[in-house]
Each structure stands twice: as C-alpha cells, then as structure tokens.
Amino acid sequence: MRTSSNPAFRNLPRTAVAGGGYAGFNQPQGGVPGYGPPQAPAGAADRPMTVDDVVVKTGASLGVTLLVGIVTAIWAQGQVAADSMGAVMGAMIGGMLVGLVLALIIAFKQLASAPMTLAYAAAEGVFLGAITGVFEMLYPGIALQAILGTAGVFVVMLVVYKTGAVKVTPKFRKWMIGALGGVLVLMLANLVLSLFGVNMGLRDGGTLAIIFSLVVIGVAAFSFLLDFDMADQAIRAGVPAKFAWYVAFGLMVTLVWLYLEILRLLSYFQSE
C-alpha cells in the first residue's frame, strides 16, 4: 500500500481478498461493472470494500458535519448578537479539542468505527459552525461562498484524479509530503512567534498572508489526489468493507482543512 500525506490513510490494512479485489476509482476489465470479478458470498462485515461504501460513509460523515455546523452557526450568530462571545469561544475550542483527540485516536489506532468517525464529524461541525457563525456576522454571505468553494475544489480534484490529468507517482507523492511538511512548519512557527509578539505576516490579511493562504489551499487541494489514490489502493487490495469509515474519516480531515483555509482567504478579501 502506498503512503499518503493524510495520517488517516498511512496504515490501511494490506490484506487482499482471494480471487481479486473490488474495483476502485479505476474499473478493471471483466466481472460486474464497478465491482470487479464475481465474488463468493460474504457477510457484510468481511466483504471487500467498494466505491459505494466510501461514497455512502463519506456522505454520512459530511452530512453530520453540515447539520451540526448549520445549527451551531445559527446559535453562534445569536450569541454574537447578544455580546456573548465567551460561549462561542467555548464551543469553538471545545469542538476543536474534541475533534483533535478523536482524530488522533482514529488515525493512530487505525479505528474503522462508525461511532468514532461520526463523533469526529459532529465535533468538527461544532468547531466549524462556531467559527462560521462569527465570520458570517462579520462578512454576510461568506459561509456559502466557502462551502461552494470547498465543494468546487473537491469535485475538480476528483475529476483530475479520474482523468489522470495529474498522475500520483512516487515523485509527486514525495513533493506533496514535502510541501505539506513545509506548510505545517510555517504555521507552527507563525503560531509560536505570535505568542511572543512577532508577526511573520502569514495571517494578518496582507499580501503575504493572501499568497500563503493560496499556497495552503493548493497543497490541501492536491492532497485530495493522494487521498483518492490511497482509497483506490485500499479498494483494490480488498480491505474489509468496514474500513470505508476509516477512508471517510481521512477525506473529512482534508475537507475540514480546505474549508477553514478558504474561509480565511475569503475573509482577507472582504476585510479590505
């Protein structure tokens, strides 16, 4: 199995089913279209994972995040209007911390669990909803723009992957992991230095901040190619269907990161 910049995909099981695996995003020849060679009957728990499994689980996770996020955003706007920012900040920090803890547990323990993945999705919904509610009060309409922007990037990168416009080669993978590492180091350095009053200009809304945000969005977008490739490899290897929840979690991590960065970039333009 290939490696990925997304920690959720680094340790997917490598067990292949006997007689060939199910098709991934690229369809094999023969067998039932979209499902590879005929398979022996198996229980729901141990049958090979399919694209449909990934789509359904990812859709369910995204749906939970959107639902919780919308409710939280509406609540946050009411709190901001009532000058109760403390409650909003509490929800924001609480959602972020719970989401981070769940993400670390799922990624490093390699948990293919519907409750854990959906709990992560709900926590991110609270976190994103609280942030979005505040931004929406400051810049009306920014939430819809960020959602549409995130969806647009996701669809474009899926098309890029399916058409093979950009090949996920070992060289590409090394470049992407290097770019991701560089972005994370800069973010961490900016955070640490800001605590000591040093402004690197990466998050102040200026020209450098806009350029940096565009670079981060680009890295997040191209990370989808690695995520799609790892999901494809997992399907081809015939990993159990339950691991679709693990793949869904990995895709959600990238989606959350991309949405936050697009929201930030849009705020730069609207605050000018």
UniProtKB/TrEMBL annotation:
InterPro entries: BaxI_1-like (IPR010539). The chain crosses the membrane at residues 54-75, 87-106, 118-135, 141-163, 175-196, 208-231, 243-260. Signal peptide: none annotated. Keywords: Membrane, Transmembrane, Transmembrane helix. The keyword Methyltransferase does not apply. It comes from the Bacteria. The keyword S-adenosyl-L-methionine does not apply. This is Putative YccA/Bax inhibitor family protein.
